[in-house]
């Protein structure tokens, strides 16, 4: 009894069973080079099919179905042996304990020629049956009905159309997934920017206090003002900001500084050199992006 917990287990059972059958056919001198696997029929109970249906949908395209029969086209096919590849499976819903392969259908170029060859071997084959342009006969082996026919279950044109449709659907899903990932990135960026804006008013107010404290220290040393300034600086650091380090004598940098005035240079000074820092500048700690440029006076 074969237990099928998922589609992978069923696929392995199909590959192993079909491979073994091909070996048996070689032993009977059935020319495998003149026949290609068209499809197989798997008898399966409805409950087991329901269990693996989601995986089947993810790995194949259901071409047709009714209460008793489901025809699927596998995305990539199952590699059996050599260049033998299985692309189509017919599931027949029956009251059965475990899934079994009931039929394997091979496509051959000349049904009559192969029939004559096997007849000479004394194999128990049926007579050739004809229906329209389709000719076929069968051989029973290992409790599996082997059918040789000259007509595919689905014509090449239909298969190509279905494969094209399948490829388009896969591409569409990949495109949707890519769009969703881009959407998530945009939303994350918007959230970061919204958070920055929400903190901006608080940051601006704190900066003004820091500026006032700095100016007071430059004019007169008030008791406790140093401690207040240090605490406010820590608050800014917790908000993700840090001071832009600038000293008198530094070269003017338009990315981190704003020149509010200029004064003629003295002997030994260079043009565009900072000679006074009127207001401190701040930048984001995480990105080094300037939050507010320092206001400076430079030489000209």
List keywords for this structure.
300 residues; Nucleotide Exchange Factor Grpe, Chain A, domain 2; eight-stranded mixed beta sheet; three-stranded antiparallel beta sheet; 2,3-Dihydroxybiphenyl 1,2-Dioxygenase, domain 1; alpha+beta; single chain; 14 strands
Strand-and-helix sequence, N→C? Answer: HEHEEEEHEEEHHEEEEEE
CATH-level-4 superfamily name of the largest domain: 2,3-Dihydroxybiphenyl 1,2-Dioxygenase, domain 1
Q: Roughly how many Å apart are the termini?
A: 93 Å
C-alpha-based Rg, rounded: 40 Å
Q: What CATH first level of the largest domain would be assigned?
A: Alpha Beta
Give the low-confidence spans: none
Biggest sheet descriptor: 8 strands, mixed
Shape: rod-shaped
* CATH architecture assignment of the largest domain: Roll
Written description of the protein model:
The chain is an alpha+beta fold and 300 residues long. It is 41% helix and 31% strand. The strands form three sheets. Strands 2-3-4-1-5-8-7-6 form an eight-stranded mixed sheet, sandwiched between helices. β6 and β7 form a beta hairpin. α4 runs antiparallel to α5 (225-238). The protein is rod-shaped.
């Amino acid at each position: 009894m074969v237990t099928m917990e998922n589609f992978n287990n069923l696929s392995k059972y199909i590959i192993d069973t079909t491979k073994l059958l091909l070996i048996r056919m070689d032993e009977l001198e059935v020319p495998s080079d003149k026949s290609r696997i068209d499809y197989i029929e798997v008898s399966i109970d409805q409950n087991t099919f329901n269990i693996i249906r989601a995986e089947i949908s993810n790995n194949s395209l259901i071409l047709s179905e009714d209460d008793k029969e489901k025809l699927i086209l596998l995305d990539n096919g199952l590699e059996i042996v050599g260049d033998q590849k299985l692309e189509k499976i017919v599931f027949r819903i029956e009251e059965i304990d475990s899934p079994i392969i009931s039929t394997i259908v091979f496509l051959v170029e000349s049904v009559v020629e192969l029939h004559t060859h096997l007849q000479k071997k004394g194999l128990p084959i049926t007579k050739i049956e004809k229906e329209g342009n389709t000719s076929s006969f069968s051989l029973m082996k290992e409790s599996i009905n082997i059918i040789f026919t000259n007509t595919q279950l689905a014509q090449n044109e239909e298969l190509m159309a279905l494969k094209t449709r399948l490829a388009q659907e896969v591409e569409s899903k990949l495109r949707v997934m890519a769009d969703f990932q881009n959407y998530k990135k945009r939303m994350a960026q918007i959230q970061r920017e919204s958070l920055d804006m929400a903190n901006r008013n608080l940051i601006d107010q704190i900066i003004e206090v820091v500026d006032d404290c700095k100016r007071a220290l430059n004019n007169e040393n008030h008791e406790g003002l140093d401690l207040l300034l240090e605490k406010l600086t820590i608050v800014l650091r917790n908000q993700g900001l840090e001071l832009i380090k600038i000293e008198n004598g530094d070269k003017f940098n338009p990315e981190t500084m704003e020149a509010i005035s200029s004064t003629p240079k003295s002997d030994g000074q260079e043009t565009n050199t900072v000679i006074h820092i009127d207001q401190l500048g701040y930048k984001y700690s995480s990105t080094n992006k300037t939050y507010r440029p320092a206001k400076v006076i430079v030489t000209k």
